[in-house]
Amino acid sequence: MEIVIKTKNLHKTFFNGEVPVHALKGVNLDINEGEFVVILGPSGSGKSTLLNILGGMDAPTEGEIYYRGIPLHNMGKKELTMFRRNAVGFIFQFYNLIPNLTAYENVALAAEIAVNPLDPATILAEMGLADRKNHFPSQLSGGQQQRVAIARAIAKNPDILLCDEPTGALDYETGKQVLDTLRNFNRVMGKTVLVITHNAAIGKMADRVIYIKDGRVDKVEVNANPVTAGEVSW
Ligand SMILES: Nc1ncnc2c1ncn2[C@@H]1O[C@H](COP(=O)(O)OP(=O)(O)OP(=O)(O)O)[C@@H](O)[C@H]1O
To answer: Is 44 in the pocket of ligand 1 (CB under 6 A)?
Structure first.
């Protein structure tokens, strides 16, 4: 099985004025192709910092990170932008849709700049949003906006999908629908999906659960029998 992302001794230190905050303190990880990985950890443990570095949105202070063997830690800004654009789809807790573009236009914009995009209208229809495609974000519910955000990430047809608390702002049923979509992208399309969350129940869907504690990998659990989104409850 090919390793899609590898990190070696990853450190990230932020400075609040003079005061250093050691968000990551030596993270070693391998993420395999086609895996559904859930990263669990308490608030402030470094999960978002890690995801941002894995997605090329931020650089480590120290350590190495490889995407399919290619070092990201040595990349210039332009190359990193291409990596983000072509290889990675992001889903955030608070959708980050462009307010003055319709649902369709939000998805199409992402697809336009991708190398091998999927059809925006088809993806929106698969998300159950065919009849909402001409709505602006402010005319959609939170769950619908999150589904547009997922459609936008998936329409790029990325190699890796990185999700930061994707269900954090959603009600229970909508959250489960969103998880189902993420799992389909993983299982049907064979893509690598990483989800960071506080919600331990979501870990039951994962092939592997990586626990982050105080800027380090605390433990890794392999799930012999990952369940479907429908079987998860919290
Ligand atoms: N830009 C920044 N400047 C300074 N400190 C930061 C910055 N970003 C994160 N931190 C600090 O780094 C640590 C890890 O933050 P991070 O957001 O990665 O944690 P998290 O596990 O994702 O938390 P949460 O679950 O609450 O989102 C925290 O102490 C946080 O305050």
So the answer is: yes
User: Are 183 and 36 spatial neighbours (Cβ–Cβ below 8 Å)?
Assistant: yes
- Tell me whether 0.85 is exceeded by the ipTM: yes
| Ligand 1 neighbourhood includes 20 CB (under 6 angstroms) | no
Report the domain count for the chain: 1
For the entire predicted model, the pTM comes to: 0.92
CATH number of the domain that 162 lies in? Answer: 3.40.50.300
Q: Is 53 in the pocket of ligand 1 (CB under 6 A)?
A: no
Ligand 1 atom closest to residue 15's alpha carbon, by position in its atom list: 4
Among 191, 226, 185, 220, residue whose Cα is nearest residue 205: 226
- Domain enclosing residue 225, as ranges: 3-231
Give yes or no for residue 16 CB within 6 A of ligand 1: yes
For 70-110, how does the pLDDT look when each residue is reduced to its tens digit (9 = 90+)?
999 989 999 999 999 889 999 988 888 999 999 999 999 99
Residue 70 · residue 6 · CB < 8 Å: no
What's the gap in Å between 233 CA and the centre of ligand 1? 28
Q: What is the pLDDT of residues 144-195, one digit of tens each?
A: 998 999 999 999 999 999 999 988 888 888 888 889 989 999 999 899 999 9
- Contact, 194 vs 183, CB < 8 A? no
